[in-house]
Design the sequence.
């Protein structure tokens, strides 16, 4: 409900927002590159100041499905396009966690879908490795390892969640996994 | 029989209304009745107490640990089990289920009158439902949880029935339309040319409980069991997917002629979950030492062997980690034995069957990680085997909502070498230098042999850990 209200509010002020966005985005982008985590700190402080009861991790996760151009691989080959597509699919499913987690049966189905999406993404990564030669293959393999590590961490978090019921940890872990998904895309984009 | 008893009783009661006269029949009859009542009471007091726990209301929640590490018992009446029931039976349809039960009771497949003879105990855990007779504790049947398709509660006047739809035991799946119930429901147009229609069949386990509360309690307990089991299965499915994607080789393990000649750091550190594996050091040593005779340029040789060792070592490292968490020490030793037998010439078919038996249903996903051990010539059989046991396509208990989780044929064609020294290779160009292939194959061979030995050693070391206080 709160999200709906905020969306409506944003739509009404969209013109002003767009102008502000155009000005501030490059500033934040540059600042973030030099001080990673700065943007998050600012946003969290603003939320605290305004005493807005918004779960930051939940919001971040819901936005995970949005396409981010800087992470999209622009190579035309089928395998790279598949990499884009499967990354998008995984992030989309992860973004539905906040809606599905309260429904026990439905959430199990979501987990199964996440499992399939992870598998498909890794399959595509493996296919790209096999088919294409990369100069900095080591960096790509390292990125794949990181992704696997965070996937395993996500699985462990789920096991803990089913015991203690703390959804926030699931959101945090899912956000980390979406970040790793983006890092895989970035790695293939810059190295390939 | 029962109506005669009633007539005699009534007759006795009539006579006994005359003051001062006690009917001899009544005396004998009532004495018999009292005796039977007394015996029933004695039996009830002789019966052991049930292994039960208090459940939180109103949803009868139980601590999951009890279902996982213990069990809970409830008293029921066992009416019987119907077999070869059409699988399309809707367990939510009161009419359908009662029709089957009524027919079964008429044909004496199920108990008609409920007496103490049907008294039974249902023992429930996260693994199975076990049914035993209340007196004597003889086992009636045992149903694994994953064989239960549905649980229904039907109230039929004073009867409170709990009906479990379960899988038919092996040997009873798709049956021809000789099933009487099937004949009633099938039309002529649905008959095949042979005159028979093959349908999936199931069983109905019919229980009765004392009242609605007891029925709801049993249903809710089963619901909690399903939740535990299917949550665990779902997480296992996730782990399998990650494991499979992570351990799929990213290159063909035979030397490819178009491989880059760039150097690879052969001393790459592993990301190991545990550092206690005895073989890890031997794996790193293998990866670092170049083979004795390799005619290719040192740079290419170092790159390819380093990459082979790194990739293969990672695959095997991951697999060992998983084995250690999923198998007992004895099972690890058995696995090592089977692997050695396969490498010494046993058929792939035998290897697969024996492994399937070793892992069982709950751990059959471990077969996925064996891809690295399977040479090219056997990979197709192996992939087909995975499909038949429902691992490859994610069948078994669960699949995802899109029926995904399939391996493509191309991704299964990664090559390995086996103990016979046959070099693997897919459609991609194979190395033209046989010496390179042989040394690569020998390298792989040696690693697999080392792994087999280390797996056995791991099993022995786990035994010792168990014994040492």
Sequence:
């Amino acid at each position: 409900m709160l999200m709906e209200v905020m969306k409506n509010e944003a739509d009404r002020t969209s013109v002003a927002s767009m102008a502000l966005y155009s000005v501030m985005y490059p500033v934040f982008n540059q600042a973030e590159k030099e001080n990673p985590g700065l943007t998050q700190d600012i946003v969290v402080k603003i939320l605290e100041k305004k005493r807005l009861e918004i779960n930051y991790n939940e919001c971040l996760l819901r936005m995970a499905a949005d396409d981010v151009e800087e992470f999209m691989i622009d190579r035309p080959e089928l395998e790279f396009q598949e990499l884009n597509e499967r990354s998008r699919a995984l992030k989309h499913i992860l973004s539905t966690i906040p809606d599905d987690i309260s429904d026990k049966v439905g959430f199990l189905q979501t987990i199964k879908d996440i499992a399939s999406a992870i598998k498909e993404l890794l399959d595509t990564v493996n296919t790209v490795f096999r088919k294409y030669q990369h100069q900095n293959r080591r960096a790509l393999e390292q990125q794949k390892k990181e992704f696997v590590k965070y996937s395993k961490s996500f699985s462990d978090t789920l096991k803990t969640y089913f015991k203690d019921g703390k959804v926030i940890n699931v959101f945090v872990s899912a956000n980390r996994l979406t970040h790793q998904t983006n890092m895989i895309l970035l790695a293939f984009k810059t190295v390939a | 029989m029962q109506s005669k008893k009633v007539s005699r009783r009534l007759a006795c009661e009539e006579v006994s209304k005359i003051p001062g006269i006690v009917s001899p029949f009544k005396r004998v009859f009532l004495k018999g009745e009292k005796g039977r009542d007394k015996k029933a009471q004695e039996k009830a007091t002789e019966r052991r107490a049930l292994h039960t726990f208090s459940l939180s209301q109103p949803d009868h929640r139980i601590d999951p640990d009890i279902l996982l590490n213990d069990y809970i018992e409830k008293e029921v009446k066992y009416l019987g089990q119907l077999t070869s029931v059409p699988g399309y039976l809707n367990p939510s349809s009161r009419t359908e289920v009662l029709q089957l039960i009524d027919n079964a009771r008429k044909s004496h497949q199920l108990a008609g009158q409920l007496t103490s003879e049907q008294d039974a105990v249902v023992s429930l855990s996260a693994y199975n439902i076990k049914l035993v007779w209340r007196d004597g504790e003889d086992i009636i049947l045992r149903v694994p949880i994953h064989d239960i398709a549905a649980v229904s509660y039907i109230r039929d006047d004073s009867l409170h029935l709990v009906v479990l739809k379960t899988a038919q035991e092996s040997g009873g799946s798709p049956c021809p339309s000789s099933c009487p119930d099937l004949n009633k429901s099938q039309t002529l147009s649905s008959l095949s040319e042979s005159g028979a229609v093959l349908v999936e069949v199931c069983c109905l386990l019919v229980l009765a409980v004392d009242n609605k509360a007891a029925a709801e309690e049993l249903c809710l307990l089963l619901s909690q069991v399903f939740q535990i089991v299917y949550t665990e299965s779902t997480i296992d499915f996730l782990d399998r997917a990650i494991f499979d994607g992570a351990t799929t080789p990213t290159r063909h393990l035979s030397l490819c002629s178009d491989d880059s000649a760039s150097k690879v750091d052969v001393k790459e550190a592993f990301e190991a979950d545990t550092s206690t594996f005895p073989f890890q050091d031997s794996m790193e040593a293998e990866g670092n030492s170049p083979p004795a005779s390799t005619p290719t340029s040192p740079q290419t040789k170092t790159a390819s062997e380093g990459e082979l060792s790194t990739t293969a070592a990672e695959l095997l490292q991951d697999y060992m980690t998983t084995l250690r968490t999923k198998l007992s020490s004895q099972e690890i030793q058995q696995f090592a034995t089977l692997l050695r037998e396969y490498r010494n010439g046993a058929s792939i078919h035998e290897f697969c069957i024996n492994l399937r038996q070793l892992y069982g249903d709950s751990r059959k996903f471990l077969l996925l990680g064996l891809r690295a051990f399977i040479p090219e010539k056997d990979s197709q059989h192996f992939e087909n085997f995975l499909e038949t046991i429902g691992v490859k396509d994610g069948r078994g208990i669960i699949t995802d909502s899109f029926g995904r989780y399939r391996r493509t044929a191309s991704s299964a064609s990664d090559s390995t070498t086996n103990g016979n020294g046959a070099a693997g290779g897919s459609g991609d160009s194979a190395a033209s230098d046989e010496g390179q292939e042989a040394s690569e194959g020998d390298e792989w061979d040696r690693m697999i042999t080392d792994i087999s030995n280390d797996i056995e050693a791991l099993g022995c070391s786990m035994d010792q850990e168990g014994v040492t206080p």
User: Anything to note?
Assistant: Residues 232-247+309-389 of chain B form a domain with the Paired amphipathic helix 2 (pah2 repeat) fold (CATH 1.20.1160.20). DSSP finds twelve helices and seven strands in chain B.
